[in-house]
Amino acid sequence: MSVHSPSEAQETARRLYDMAGILLPAAIRAAATLCVADRIAEGTTSAADLAVRVRADPDGLTLLLRYLASAGLFHRSDHDRYTLTALGDALRSDSPVSVRALLDSDGVLGRSDLGTVNVLHTVRTGRACHESVFGTDFWSDVQHDPAYAASFDTFLGNGVGWDAGIVIDSYPWDTVGHVTDVGGGGGSLLIELLHAHPHLRGRVVDLPNSVDLARARLVRAGLDGRGEAVVGSFFDRVPGGSDVYLLSAVLADWTDERAVRILRTVAGAAGPKARVLLAEVTMPRSGADSHDTASTANDLYVAATVTVPARTDRQLIAIAEAAGLRLSRRGPGSAVRSLLEFTVAR
Ligand SMILES: C[S@@+](CC[C@H](N)C(=O)[O-])C[C@H]1O[C@@H](n2cnc3c(N)ncnc32)[C@H](O)[C@@H]1O
């Protein structure tokens, strides 16, 4: 340890204290959630008028605006009137470099970020934070929020990730007539599958907000004749009648016990004839050699937000077997995606 003068030591301690501050991030996120920058850009500049437009307490909003002006997001003029600085401009929804939706506390990522305030929970227990902060699991929580569907749309876009090409191209879909994408979200993967395999029909089963989104997307893609989206919880019941029940990037959000429950429900829908296709993702860690802030932060963030970020094939097979399934086909996989097919054990 190097020797510091008392004033240097004090300065260092202050720097550390500032680093640990949570008010500024929380205040920026409050402004993002309330769309304050959008209203300012539209010409509402006084704190009192802004409070009316964003439905906030006038005094509370005034304090927020003054604080964020001091932090460089707004220019503040006399009588608490505000305009956007270059920094604040990035909080406009329609800025080409907008970060508003990312920071929206009612949105998918913003909500997930808020859970990390209790990263102590992850450190103590090894478990993700969300339930410890909000009292309910991430997906049930966000499903109750009407802003969620829109934010889901923004973040998932129309694409599929995590080497999903393996699922689309490397499985013998020519042997499948109908697929159910269980927890299929906004329908992106089903849409890609239906485009790639014109004989295929399918359905998404998910919670209501995701289903609304998937329905709208199927219509936009001109695939509503071959694809549908139905509301259902994989803890209760999944409709029967498909040849394949696909679960893509679903089990990572659940403990082993709940993952077994999900697969039991799916096995019940599959019956003796259908196949259950697990296309799970593994979120890789940057590893012990990594020292930079971005990758070490990412490792901690994933641990704090995803229930089981990485399961080996062996662990997935054990969970499936506990749910009464038997491995019938394996792979191909990639570094981040596995492909395991099961049938109901007799
Ligand atoms: C990580 S996303 C995966 C989405 C999609 N399968 C993919 O590969 O991108 C998990 C999905 O599970 C859905 N989900 C969560 N709880 C559910 C439940 N109880 N029943 C059905 N779907 C659920 C979520 O709404 C979300 O769409």
If you had to describe this structure to a student in words, what would you say it looks like?
The protein is α/β, with parallel strands linked by helices and 346 residues long. It folds into 2 domains: 1-103, Arc Repressor Mutant, subunit A; 156-283 and 306-344, Vaccinia Virus protein VP39 (Rossmann fold, 3-Layer(aba) Sandwich). 46% of the residues lie in helices and 13% in strands. It has 18 helices and 9 strands. The strands form 2 sheets. The protein has a 7-stranded mixed beta sheet with strand order 5-4-3-6-7-9-8, with helices on both faces. The protein has a two-stranded antiparallel ribbon with strand order 1-2. Helix 2 packs across helix 5 (58-70) and helix 9 (119-125) packs across helix 17. The longest helix is centred in the last third of the chain and has 15 residues, at 256-270. Residues 139, 183-185, 189, 206-207, 210, 233-235, 248-250, 253 line the site of S-adenosylmethionine.
Offer a quick outline of the entry.
By secondary structure, this protein is α/β, with parallel strands linked by helices. It has helices spanning 6-19, 23-33, 36-41, 47-53, 58-70, 86-89, 100-103, 108-115, 119-125, 130-134, 138-143, 147-156, 165-169, 188-196, 208-220, 256-270, 293-305, 313-322, and strands at 74-77, 81-84, 178-182, 201-206, 227-231, 244-248, 275-279, 325-330, 340-344. The longest helix is centred in the C-terminal third of the chain and has 15 residues, at 256-270.
